[in-house]
Amino acid sequence: MSVPRRIKVLIVDDSALVRQVLAQLLDGFSDIEVMATAPDPIFAMAKMNKEWPDVITLDVEMPRMDGITFLKQIMSTRPTPVLICSSLTEKGAATTMQAMQAGAAGIFTKPQLGVKEFLTSNKQQFADAIREAAKTNTKNLIPRALLPPAPVMIPQEAEPAAMAKTTERVIAIGTSTGGTIALEYLLSQLTTVCEGIVIVQHMPEKFTAAFAARLNSICSIEVREARHGDRVRPGLALIAPGGQHLSIGRNGAYYQALVKPGPAVNRHCPSVDVLFRSVAKVAGVNAIGIIMTGMGDDGARGLLEMREAGARTFAQDEDSCVVFGMPKEAIKRNAVDYIVGLDRIPGIMMKYSQ
Asked: Which of 57, 89, 190, 352 is the most exposed place for a label (fewest CB within 10 A)?
């Protein structure tokens, strides 16, 4: 029997302590091999000229060349999964959003103090992040050109009388790995007549505010981090804050965002399942659910509940995903009405809004 190939990892960080600790921790996993470490991108490129890694872990602020410049070089020459190791600060969040826009596959946060203890206690999560990055479809990590959305016809169906109490409608979206690039493409295609949108993007605390601010600066619709009690309204996309669950409730004839802390669901907080289940319960046929690129199965069960409640449900297709895990699990559970490419989703949302 052949031995499974190990994931070759290159660690690039200007901290000797971080390099040493990460290398020791990752060497403890049988499916991961630390092929080299480097204190900055210049040294890293010298090592990569001899052997190319499967995954690169990359600090952002380094001497001689910053991480974002290095990342852009990699993605323009030989796209490779890059996991950003960033400090959990406001400045670090904003910089990391630039890295995600440049094609980073994911984020792993680290504190400014107590780094060794933090990495040691979170070694399993870091290894899982590397495994997740290794499975990404690198061609879809590169930001898409803003192509016009493909026209989509959504069948018209009679709505049960039970949901005739409100004409308000809502679009619920769940995504993870690769979602920052996909959401930027998707939301930038929409106009202000689009129905209200609620989104869970798996992302650490502090990072969602920076992500929402970036999207808001380039989109016609308003995009911001959700606040408890926000009305879900046309022309507004609300993104779940990192570290808190987002769901929706009814306030008279309107839907409103409910933002609350809570335990992780499917290893995530915010969780797509939490959002989708609330939409199934509160909105029913007055909603559509869209599950997009991401690792794992968060959202699959909730999307099934949405479909059973009468909502139309969509999954991003494998060819346009960075990671097909979440859509694939939803499809396996018979939770999906339509499987569509990313370029078709804006048209679906606008047609639904009309």
From this structure: 89
Instruction: Say yes or no to pLDDT of 151 above 70.
Output: no
Cα(57)–Cα(272) distance, rounded to whole angstroms? 26
Residue 141 has a pLDDT of 82
pLDDT, tens only, 239-273? 999 999 999 999 888 999 999 999 999 989 999 99
Domains (range + CATH), the chain: 7-134 (3.40.50.2300), 161-353 (3.40.50.180)
What DSSP line would sit under 180-222, residue for residue? HHHHHHHHHT--TTSPEEEEEE---TTHHHHHHHHHHHH-SSE
Helix or strand holding residue 299 (H, E) = none
As a whole number of angstroms, the distance between CA 267 and CA 288 comes to 24
Q: Catalytic residue positions?
A: 176, 202, 298
CA separation for the pair 216, 210 (Å, rounded): 10
pLDDT at 81 over 80: yes
Please state the pTM of the whole predicted model. Answer: 0.85
Read off the tokens for 46: 């010298």
pLDDT for the residue numbered 125 = 86
Local structure of residue 265 (DSSP, 8 states): B
Q: Rounded to an integer, what distance in angstroms lies between the CA atom of residue 34 and that of residue 11?
A: 7
Q: Are 274 and 248 in contact (CB under 8 A)?
A: no
Average pLDDT over residues 225-231: 97
Element holding 269 (H helix, E strand)? none
Contact between residue 172 and residue 306 where contact means Cβ atoms under 8 Å apart: yes
Contact 21, 115 (CB under 8 A): yes
Map residue 34 onto helix, strand or coil.
strand
195: its two tokens = 């129905």
For residue 306 the two structure tokens come to 């949405």
Residues 6+ apart with CB under 8 A from 309: 280, 281, 283, 284, 285
